[in-house]
Fold this protein.
Amino acid sequence: MSLIELKVPDIGGHENVDIIAVEIKAGDTVAVEDTLITLETDKATMDVPAEAAGVVKEVKVKVGDKISEGGIIAVIEAAADGVKAEEQPAAAPAAEAEAAKAESTPAPQAASFSGSADVEYDVVVLGGGPGGYSAAFAAADEGLKVAIIERYNTLGGVCLNVGCIPSKALLHNAAVIDEVRHLAANGIKYPEPELDIDMLRGYKEKVISKLTGGLAGMAKARKVDVIQGNGLFVGPNHIEVALTDSAQYEQAVETGEKKTVAFKNCIIAAGSRVMNLPFIPEDPRIIDSSGALELKEVPGKMLIIGGGIIGLEMGTVYSTLGTRLDVVEMMDGLMQGADRDLVKVWQKLNEYRFDNIMVNTKTVAVDAKEDGIYVTFEGENAPKEPLRYDAVLVAAGRAPNGKLIDAEKAGVAVTDRGFIEVDKQMRTNVPHIYAIGDIVGQPMLAHKAVHEGHVAAENCAGHKAYFDARVIPGVAYTAPEVAWVGVTETTAKAEGVKITKANFPWAASGRAIANGCDQGFTKLIFDAESGRIIGGGIVGPNGGDMIGEICLAIEMGCDATDIGKTIHPHPTLGETIGLAAEVALGTCTDLPPQRKK
Ligand code: FAD
């Protein structure tokens, strides 16, 4: 085995360029094209990839150093000829989801129901969330007689009532405040905003009721009956509904009346709930995402337990309103699922919101005292003493509701974790009962639920529909947004998929510079053999709006030429997708010349 010096290649004549990130350490195994360091010029940031594979013996640079073409980055012991260095598979969320689904679940014996039904439908949808109402409306559009059973007083489920929409209503306001603060650097100064928390909460409520009211109207227009109550299976063709009264979402009181509903087909869309941690006491200062969205007050200092999207989105809102944040995450980084290079940009721009970012760390005890909530941590970044907080936001994930609907009485198998397994037609093990949305597995996202709902409805109508989406995008609507889809560098490495990637730094985008958001970047990931796009990521404002183009490109089987030769409007942030494709093609005239391969 020989030692090889990995050097900075031709970087377009730039000299003494800042090193802003070093991705390797001694002992790491690197593969060809793995990023070694990131450089920042006045025009762009660029990753320097490894030109040879091997084990890192010595890293010769550190963050803050300056380097030019030919500068030595590291010395590696080369892997054997033609053999790619060993890559340690990392735990990929997608693989985890599959593992959850693969739990073998014995089918239970269905109960025999001999009672009579009060009403009968072609399709009954259990749960009125985005999956449920979309399935119900699609089935009604097929001419079927449909009912939705929903325990709360509005349709829209978690997404519209206590999830996607209210969080975005608050995030929008936070983003405007942040933007206005940034304007001071351009010579436009506003006084600090005055917060009327009741009005802000009122705005969020108005957004919700506009949408949920719209859904009620659309249900009526389609003649879809909405039965308000708790539905439980009593047999393979019947659900008993304990009717409820509820003043608001997540509050339902049973009236004592019951209704038995018969169905030819059923679509289970009963969603998920916040996962509670057993060692956390009940205290009004300890909240979950629904509690955070209630926006009762702005605490001085808040701990977020769980560094995933939901916690970080809510943290963004509270931080902009004045809360100091800590976050604790068991995994080795925040926003798991997204590639680290995307998250790194977000983290750099958001560090000012946090006093402590504790990754590889667990919360082990929570003690509610009169003067605050005291939290004890264990792990790599755990403080020695418990820390005191004014509030704690528990955002440690969501649990499926599969065990709460007496599915076994219909003969439907439910995994130990509460998921319901389905095939590509969204059928459970009972052929006339389908399941969709959060209850069937990860990713727990509204857009996945909606598409699955459409597939189930079409099958109820006798069509042959399949859920065969190639990709499902994920977005953190933080500031800046982080969006990704398909194969990531992390999953490619874990699964041994050979890829090529192309980054376009927003430091070279006229629009990003004009908008003051030039730290973002757009990344495209291609299959190394076919050249087709298989993934992508964006970090920057509106990344979530733009990722749809990459989704479409993947679904259409596009290659870099298709994307690069598509004329994108100038100057836009969306243009960076076309420009990243130009990078993949080897010539991007908005960047310095690329290293010849
Ligand atoms: P749900 O929305 O959970 O709906 C299920 C419905 O079934 C509920 O209304 C429930 O009351 C009802 N139900 C359950 N059991 C019964 C029963 N026995 N009888 C009667 N009714 C019953 N996703 C995104 O894609 N984008 C986002 O930006 C986003 N932001 C989020 C922010 C937060 C704070 C949270 C908590 C979630 C967010 N999500 C987001 C996730 C998204 O809300 C869910 O993936 C989506 O709501 C799942 O839809 P669903 O139809 O499967 O179930």
Q: What stands out?
A: The pocket of flavin-adenine dinucleotide is lined by residues 126-132, 149-152, 157-159, 163-164, 167, 230-231, 269-272, 289, 310, 401, 405, 437-438, 444-447, 449, 477 (CB under 6 Å). The first strand starts at residue 3 and ends at 7. The radius of gyration is 26 Å. The first helix runs from residue 93 to 102.
